[in-house]
Amino acid sequence: MRELQDRFGRSFPYLRLSITDACNFKCEYCLPNGYHPDGKPRFMTLDEIRRVLHAFSTVGMRKVRITGGEPTLRKDFEEVLQLAASTPGVDTIATTTNGYRLAEHARAWHQAGLSQVNVSVDSLDPANFQRITGDSRFDLVMKGIDAALNEGYRKVKINVVLLKGLNGGELPLFLDYIKHQPVDLRFIELMETGLHHDYFQAHHLPGTVIQAQLERQGWQLDPRGPDDGPALNYSHPDYAGRIGLIMPYAKDFCASCNRLRVSAIGKLHLCLFTEAGIELRDLLGSDDQQEELIARLHAALGQKHQTHYLHEGDAGATPHLASIGG
Length: 326
Hints:
single chain; alpha/beta; twelve-stranded mixed sheet
């Protein structure tokens, strides 16, 4: 079967699959007022998720990241992992989580097939963590990271959204943490969404600020691997961990795009910030629809733009990051 490719020659071996847009944290940059469902959303069932996974694997997907909202809020999260692990051709199963259940379930999830975990930790200061996330379970989240490291996950990463005036001065704390911990830190530049213009203006911190500090301290840019996305990864011989920078406003950020997104209600998003989503749900009701589903995926790739338009202040139809599994 022909692999997915867009008009610009980019291939897409990486799927970010949202299974819920619900979240129990209240991160200021995403859901500052907490999660409020729009009516009664009907998230994809296990059978629908299985059909999405099979279709994407047929056209070249090798890595799937299970996202939310907070994906572990779903009672069948472990079954989703097992589905992904049993999908032919998939060799990497990852998730992004706020980490509140990781300490308890790190072993079971690893046994179910989870190989990589990204935990959102926007501050290593407990009080500041609570201010940003609206949640006081900092110690529990950090115990979860320890549990994942002890369990032997292939990769354990910490996601940090850079926020001027909130955590922009915490680089020394994070560097101390990865001195002896084999964790990949991912500093992510704040992105403007439809509902957060004022917050973005107040707290956007360019990733180049962190990049300059790292280079002054001897951190070296790693060679880009064939399946690497847009992150710039840095290593230092004196540190067990690495640092990645995700800077969506940088020139040519989209040139290495290798991922697509499917929302929890079954819409294909060609970019985190473009269209309102392409409906797949009507083709997820039966295994007999796989060929038609795959044909729609190929047709959709013809609509993918060469770049996002964040630099022009256009966040597309994305009201907040939790809505499509950012």
